[in-house]
Amino acid sequence: MTAQTAGRRVVTNMSLSLDGHYAGPDDPHDMGWVMPYAVTDVARDHLTSLWEPATTALLGRVNAEGFLGFWPTVIGMTGADPRDEGFARWLVDTDKVVLSTTLTEAPWERTTLVDKPTAEVVADLKTTEGGDILVLSSASVIKALLAADMVDRLAITIFPIFLGGGPRLFDDGLPAGTWALVSQTAGEHGTLALVYDRVR
């Protein structure tokens, strides 16, 4: 039994509160609670380590609209952290696959829209050449991949805040399995970045 390394890895990245939620109870799209922690060195270095080996970004529609509405504006922004600019350039230039049942036309360059089950889309992507397939904070996509046991690397940033409720990333009924800790980094504000590989 070894950590999964062969072929294209499916890497998922999500920010969680200390009480286990990825969004608060009132508005699942309000990520304001993340912002004080997202600009820490730990969070920036964590994200950099994830996108550098990746050649495909996989997003749900809502996250695609949020990420691709904001990140391109960081490029050339006065005072922007070079790591933020690096991620923004990668996101613009890399191949993007957006899962959507409603969009008929992609408003972003280098983007493929797909209206198929998540596991099927990822199985297709894994047969192609390329680096890691990085799922960026799209909870519905990550949940589907966890349920199908298709996540090879699980990256989590834990922020020391209780949201007191809201949706959780890890639902009951997920396939049992073992994960190996690849890296752990603690930093300012008590931010903790963890990376686990699925042991198969």
Radius of gyration equals 16 Å
Query: DSSP strand (E) fraction?
Result: 25-35%
Widest β-sheet, arrangement of strands = 4-3-2-5-1-6-8-7
**Helix/strand-derived class?**
alpha/beta
How much helix, percentage-wise, in residues? 25-40%
Give the integer mean of the pLDDT values.
93
Rounded to the nearest angstrom, the distance between the terminal CA atoms is 6 Å
Q: What is the oligomer described by this structure? A: single chain
The major sheet is characterized as:
8 strands, mixed
Number of strands: 8
- Contiguous runs where pLDDT drops below 50 for at least 5 residues: 1-5
Q: How many H/I helices?
A: 6
Q: Which keywords apply here?
A:
alpha/beta; 6 helices; 8 strands; 8-stranded mixed beta sheet; 200 residues
Q: How are the secondary structure elements laid out?
A:
Elements lengths: L9 E8 L17 H4 L2 H11 L2 E7 H10 L11 H12 L1 E5 L11 E4 L3 H9 L5 E5 L2 H9 L5 E7 L18 E9 L5 E8 L1
Parallel strand pairs: 1-5, 1-6, 2-3, 2-5, 3-4
Antiparallel strand pairs: 6-8, 7-8
Helix pairs in contact: 2-4
Summarize the structure.
Helix content is 28%, strand content 26%. It contains 6 helices and 8 strands; from the N terminus they run βααβααββαβαβββ.
